[in-house]
Each structure stands twice: as structure tokens, then as C-alpha cells.
Amino acid sequence: ETGVTQTPRHLVMGMTNKKSLKCEQHLGHNAMYWYKQSAKKPLELMFVYSLEERVENNSVPSRFSPECPNSSHLFLHLHTLQPEDSALYLCASSQERNTEAFFGQGTRLTVV
Amino acid sequence: GENVEQHPSTLSVQEGDSAVIKCTYSDSASNYFPWYKQELGKGPQLIIDIRSNVGEKKDQRIAVTLNKTAKHFSLHITETQPEDSAVYFCAPSGTYKYIFGTGTRLKVLA
Q: Cα separation of B54 and B77, whole Å?
């Protein structure tokens, strides 16, 4: 248990569905991240939030929409996804720059 | 953008032998150099890190060495055990952007 919790652990969705991934941390960290992990690109940075403000959007398609309502919670809203979006989505948090990042166990997403 | 490469991509060693994984990066502003271990079904976990003002750091069987001039740092695991089998990632950083390397799958053969 790393202190970062992701739900759900597994998700199967159709291409026309809308779903959300949730991440929660109670470590008092001020930065949160979304990563995509697939066979093609092992750990691909998607979004970074620092003090609830998005500081990085790594050219991610608009069908992925992040939300950070407070420093403890991070969401990834999904809509009209493609089969190639199937992957493991990992959330992480850190106290400040250049310190250890703590990862959740990930959400295994399958788009059918 | 930042370019991070790891070598080798896969590594098999006999139990008790040593393993070395190298990470090469391009961003000269990087000043934090961590190594993460990812076991099956889990997210990556930090195993050791080093900052740019230090050349080497050791923690029991694990060590990291840094060559900032040449822009590479290496993970050294001695006396490998079956539980060291996992995927290892480097993630050199100078900002909030933790850019991960391509990963090295280590197999320790009993």
C-alpha cells in the first residue's frame, strides 16, 4: 500500500461510453500525475497538476479530460475512446519537484 | 523534448550474480535521478535515488552511480535474488515532469 488509491482496478467500456477514473492520496502531496502504460510506450506522462493547477498536458487527445478538484483527488474523464486507448492508467503523487513519486496500482482499461 | 533511454531492455542473470542497468538522458537541467521497480500487477515503487551533487549512493545490495558530464546513471544490484525479478525504470528529472525510461525487464534465474 503506497498511500495512493485508484478506482476502479479494472474497466471495460464501449467506444461510445463515458466513464471516469478516480485517484486519491492522503499523503499531503501537492502534485498529482496521470500516466498511461502500454506495451508500445512503457510509462507515458499524460497530465501533471501542481497545487490543483494543471502544469503539464503532454499532447493528450481531448477524449481524455483530467480534473483536480482538490489536492487529494484526481480524476480522468473518458469519452468516445478508441481501442488503442486500452492500457494501464497509473496515478502518482509527490510532495514537490524532484522527490519520490508514489504510484497507485493502476486501472486496467479495455476499450471494446 | 527529453530523451531517456535504458539499456539493456531485458537482462537475465543467475541468482547471486550482479546486474547493471544504464540510463542515458538528454536534459542537462536534470538534477534528480531515481530508479523505480515495478512488479507484476503493481505500480512502480522507488528503490533508490541520487541527486546531482553526489556521484554514488548505496543501500544494501542496491547502488546508483551518476556521471552528470556524460549524462548517464546506472543501477547496480549485487547478490541478485529471485524477488529482484521485475521491470526497472529510470526517471531523471529537473522539473515536475517525471519522464520515465523505456524499462528493463530483469529475470533472476534460480
A: 19
Q: Searching chain A, which residue's CA lies closest to the CA of residue B92?
A: A98
pLDDT digits (tens, 9 = 90+) for A93-111: 998 777 899 999 999 999 9
In sequence order, which residues have a C-beta less than 8 Å from that of residue B17 and are 6 or more positions away?
A: B80
Q: Residues A107, A10: contact at Cβ < 8 Å?
A: yes
Mean pLDDT over each residue of chain B, to the nearest integer: 93
Q: Inspect the interface and report whether the beta carbons of A2 and B45 lie closer than 8 Å.
A: yes
Q: Which of A55, A98, A101 sits opposite B31 (nearest CB)?
A: A98
Which of B41, B96, B103 lies at the smallest CB-CB distance from A31? B96
What is the phi-psi region of residue A63: left when phi exceeds 0, alpha when psi lies from -120 to 50, beta otherwise?
alpha
Q: Out of B34, B100, B101, name the one closest to residue A100 (CB).
A: B34
DSSP single-letter state for residue A40? S
Do the chains contact at B43 and A106, CB–CB below 8 Å? Answer: yes
What nine digits make up the cell of A96? Answer: 514537490
Cβ within 8 Å, pair B43-A98: no
Burial (CB count within 10 angstroms: exposed 0-12, middle 13-18, buried 19+), residue A78: buried
pLDDT tens digits, one per residue of A25-61: 999 999 999 999 998 777 999 999 987 777 777 789 9
